[in-house]
Specification:
Blueprint lengths: L1 E6 L5 E6 L20 E2 L5 E3 L2 E14 L2 E8 L7 E5 L3 E8 L8 E3 L20 E7 L5 E6 L6 H7 L3 E6 L1 H5 L10 E9 L15 H4 L5 E4 L2 E2 L1 E6 L2 E8 L6 E5 L5 E5 L4 E8 L2 E3 L4 E7 L7 E6 L5 E10 L24 E10 L2 E4 L11 E3 L4 E8 L5 E5 L4 E6 L16 E4 L4 E7 L11 E4 L3 H5 L3 E6 L1
Parallel strand pairs: 3-16, 4-7, 5-8, 7-12, 13-17, 16-24, 25-28, 27-34
Antiparallel strand pairs: 1-2, 5-6, 8-10, 9-11, 11-12, 13-14, 14-15, 17-22, 18-21, 18-23, 19-20, 19-22, 23-24, 25-26, 28-32, 29-31, 29-33, 30-32, 33-34
Bound molecules: copper (II) ion.
Copper (II) ion (CU) binds next to loops.
C-alpha cells in the first residue's frame, strides 16, 4: 500500500490511497467520519468545432507511484480529448498514426459512410494520416471512438486508445440540463486494468482470458486510479461509457439513491427513466442525472454491484452551486420503426467452435461479406446467444431499438429503451432488434461491421460484415 498526499484547490489536505501491483481497488473510501480519500478525477479536455486533428501516440502514465506505465493515447498519454460536434455540421477528423503499428479509429455510434467508419478496412499505417469527413446526421448523444483493427482491437484499446464524441443539437441545448464541462457535466470512461510488478499493463497473460475476456483487478475512471471528484450540491450529469474490454458494470450509488437516466447509447431518451441501478456491457453508454442538492458536505460513491460494490468514483459534494438546473422529464421525440413494416428478419447465432468465436457458424473473414442489406429497408435482426457466456452485439453505422428479449418485451430493461447501438445478449438469450440503414450505400471495399463488443471475442472471430445496397 502506497500513499501520497496532494492538495485540492481549496487547500484541504487529502490522502490518496493507491493500490500496489495486483492490489484490489476495493478500499472503502466513504467513511463519513473522515474526509474522502481519492485522486482527483481526470477530465478529458473538451474540444469543440468541426475540424479536429488527432495524433495517436505513445506515452507513459504514473498510475502507480514511482512506476511509469507505457501507454498509448490520442493527443496525450492515455485516452483522448472529448470532441463536441453539432447536428448538421460537416465534420473533419484527421487522424495521424504516430504509433509503431498500424491501427484504425472507429466512430462508435455514428451514422456515417462506410469508408469513414474507421473499421478494419480503414487501416492507418505508422506515419500516415487518415481523413474522416462526414455530416453529423443524428441528434444529441454521447458516442465514442476507438481502434478497430482486426485481431488487435482489444490490445489497442487496452493500451489507452479511446475518447468521447459528443453530439449536441438545438433541442438538447434548449433543455435545462447540467452542461458545464467538468463541473456538473462529467464524463466517466470506466475501464479495468491489471499491472505487472514493473508497472506495465498485463494483457492476456492467463490463457483463459482469451476466452473469458480480459478482466483487470484495478479500476480506472478517465485513466484515474482511486478516482473522486469534488462536485456542487445540485443536479450533476454523468456521461458514462463502459470503455472496458470485457467487464460488465452494474452501477449504483452507495446509498442506493435513485437517479434519472436521460440518454441511452446514442440519443436522449424521450422520457427520463428513474432508476437505482444501471447495467452497461462494453461499448454501451448512458447519461444520468443525479440530484446532489441536499448533499452538501457529504460524500457518496458510485460502485459496481457486479463486483462486490467495488468503488469506482467518490462524489465529494463540497461546493455550493453557483447556479441550478432543473432537468425535465420530457427530453425529446424519437422516430420508432414499426415491426409490421419489417420486410426481412435476419438471424445471428453467436457460437464457439474450435477456440474461435463465431456468428452463424463462421469466424470473421475480411474477404467475405456476410449480409447484404437494402438501403431504407426496415429489418428485424434476431441475435441468439448459443453459448453459456455473456456476449453483446454492436451494429455499425446506425442505431436500433430492442423489440424483445427471449420473446418478451417485459425483459427489456428500463435503461435499454431508446436508441441503442450495442445490446446485452446474456447466456442462451435471444434478443430481437429493429433497424434501418437509411443513410448510405457501401460496397465490398468498405463494409460495416456487426460484432460482439467483448473485445477479446471480437478479436477471435465474433464479427461479421454487411454492405448496404
Ligand atoms: Cu462475446
Amino acid at each position: 500500500m502506497k500513499r501520497r498526499a496532494f492538495l485540492t484547490g481549496s487547500g484541504t489536505l487529502f490522502l490518496a490511497t493507491l493500490t500496489g501491483c495486483g492490489g484490489s481497488s476495493n478500499n472503502d473510501t466513504t467513511s463519513p467520519q473522515s474526509p474522502a480519500s481519492y485522486a482527483p478525477l481526470k477530465i478529458p479536455p473538451l474540444r469543440e468545432g468541426a475540424d479536429f486533428d488527432l495524433s495517436l501516440q505513445e506515452g507513459a502514465v504514473e498510475f502507480l507511484e514511482g512506476l511509469f506505465t507505457p501507454t498509448w493515447g490520442i493527443e496525450g498519454d492515455f485516452l483522448g480529448p472529448a470532441l463536441r460536434v453539432r447536428t448538421g455540421d460537416a465534420i473533419r477528423l484527421s487522424v495521424t498514426n504516430n504509433l509503431p503499428e498500424a491501427t484504425t479509429l472507429h466512430w462508435h455510434g455514428m451514422r456515417l459512410p462506410g469508408p469513414m467508419d474507421g473499421g478494419p478496412h480503414q487501416i492507418i499505417q505508422p506515419g500516415e494520416t487518415w481523413l474522416a469527413e462526414y455530416e453529423v446526421l443524428q441528434g444529441a448523444g454521447t458516442n465514442w471512438f476507438h481502434p478497430h483493427r482486426e485481431g488487435v482491437t482489444g490490445e489497442h484499446v487496452y493500451r489507452g486508445l479511446a475518447g468521447l464524441l459528443i453530439v449536441e443539437d438545438g433541442s438538447s441545448e434548449s433543455l435545462d440540463l447540467p452542461r458545464t464541462w467538468g463541473e456538473d457535466d462529467i464524463p466517466l470512461i470506466l475501464q479495468d486494468r491489471r499491472f505487472n510488478a514493473d508497472g506495465t499493463f498485463d494483457y492476456l497473460s492467463q490463457p483463459m482470458e482469451e476466452i473469458n475476456g480480459m478482466l483487470g483487478d484495478t479500476y480506472l475512471v478517465n485513466g484515474t486510479l482511486g478516482a473522486g471528484i469534488r462536485l456542487p450540491a445540485k443536479e450533476v450529469r454523468f456521461r458514462i461509457l463502459n470503455g472496458s474490454n470485457a467487464r460488465e458494470y452494474d452501477l449504483r450509488f452507495s446509498d442506493g439513491r435513485a437517479f434519472r437516466q436521460i440518454a441511452t447509447d446514442n440519443a436522449l431518451r424521450e422520457q427520463a427513466a428513474t432508476l437505482t441501478r444501471l447495467r452497461l456491457t462494453p461499448g454501451e453508454r448512458a447519461e444520468i442525472v443525479v440530484d446532489l442538492g441536499a448533499d452538501l458536505g457529504d460524500t457518496l460513491t458510485l460502485v459496481n454491484a457486479d463486483d462486490g460494490d467495488a468503488p469506482l468514483l467518490v462524489l465529494d459534494v463540497a461546493d455550493t452551486p453557483s447556479s441550478i438546473t432543473t432537468t425535465p422529464d420530457t427530453l425529446t421525440t424519437l422516430e420508432h420503426l414499426d415491426p409490421l413494416q419489417a420486410v426481412t428478419t435476419r438471424t445471428f447465432r453467436l457460437g464457439m467452435q474450435m477456440g474461435l468465436f463465431t456468428i452463424n457458424g463462421v469466424a470473421m473473414d475480411m474477404e467475405r461479406i456476410d449480409q447484404v442489406v437494402p438501403l431504407g429497408a426496415v429489418e428485424i435482426w434476431e441475435i441468439i446467444n448459443e453459448t453459456n457466456m455473456l456476449h453483446n452485439f454492436h451494429v455499425h453505422g446506425t442505431h436500433f431499438e430492442i423489440l424483445d428479449r427471449n420473446g418478451s418485451p417485459a425483459q427489456i430493461e428500463a435503461y435499454e429503451t431508446g436508441y441503442k447501438d450495442t445490446v446485452r445478449v446474456g447466456p442462451l438469450e435471444r434478443v430481437r432488434i429493429i433497424l434501418r440503414m437509411e443513410d448510405y450505400t457501401t460496397d465490398e471495399s468498405a463494409p460495416y461491421m456487426f460484432h460482439c463488443h467483448i473485445l477479446e471475442h471480437e478479436d477471435r472471430g465474433m464479427m461479421g460484415q454487411f454492405i448496404v445496397v
